[in-house]
Amino acid sequence: MSRFSGKKAVISGGTHGMGFAIAKALLEGGADVLLTGRNEHNIEPARKALPGAHVIRTDTASLADIKALRCVVEDKLGHIDFLFINAGVSVLGPLESVTEETYDHMFDINTKGAYFTTQRLAPLIRAGGAIVFTTLAQGPATANLSVYAGSKAALRAFAQVFAAELVVKGIRVNAVGPGFIDTPTLGVAGLTPELRAEMAKLGDRVTPMKRHGTPEEVARAALFLAADATFTTAVELAVDGGLMQIGTAL
Fold first, then answer.
1. Is the model's pTM score more than 0.90?
2. Residues 6 or more apart whose Cβ sits within 8 Å of residue 15
3. What is the C-alpha to C-alpha distance for residues 134 and 236, in angstroms, rounded to an integer?
4. What is the pLDDT along the chain (250 residues), one digit of tens a residue?
5. Could you confirm whether domain 8-239 is CATH 3.10.28.20?
6. Can you give the residue ranges of every domain in the chain?
């Protein structure tokens, strides 16, 4: 029997990068998977690359879309076992350059969207199921990421409080905290090729393991928390090459 045979999962932000890697691993393990994305340019390629998955366009910043997503999940899957809250966006900018529009954009997607997606879908999770949030490695502070880091810190708090609320229902809630991961955008919207190369060099330099992680490595950690760590709740598992634990001491 396949590892995830009979399991049902929802992944918000699953059309590329880390969410895509989670979806692919679940499908290969025999799970029934529904994943969401906002960018039309990523949705059709995801459908072609992940045959058998339910790929749904939804804007996680829209409460109306989240409400509609609940109906789609009920229709396609019924109850679910795993919920991965992965959708997110990051825009670089120092304190003096951040606008209300940029601030609201990141918090609407990363924080409000994550909160209300969880609120709507948690009632569909069966006892023994799990929620996994994608947060951010708590390494040395990085300039120009104040709003993004703040929005992800909120998710860390959500995971701990939701774990306390949902434990009586037999649902575990944890978080995976990626460091520098080799995704197409490096997790930051709008990078030029030059800035992307600079950020990649920075990541390799400050990460004790001297390399970026892969989406597949994050996916394995997230799936461990969802499926294997059955006596674990309210924790954040760093997937950061030692950044949080060792820092730049090496």
1. yes
2. 35, 36, 37, 39, 42, 43, 45, 46, 55
3. 9
4. 689 999 999 999 999 999 999 999 999 999 999 999 999 889 999 999 999 999 999 999 999 999 999 999 999 999 999 999 999 999 888 999 999 999 999 999 999 999 999 999 999 999 999 999 999 987 767 788 899 999 999 999 999 999 999 999 999 999 999 999 998 777 676 677 787 788 788 888 989 999 999 999 999 999 999 999 999 999 999 999 998 888 554 4
5. no
6. 8-239
Task: Show Cβ contacts of residue 78 under 8 Å, excluding neighbours closer than 6 positions.
Answer: 8, 124
3 state SS of 189 = coil
Report how far residue 101's alpha carbon sits from residue 132's, in angstroms, rounded to the nearest whole number. 28
Residues that are catalytic: 148, 152
d(CA 210, CA 180) in angstroms, rounded, equals: 10
CA distance 60 to 13: 9
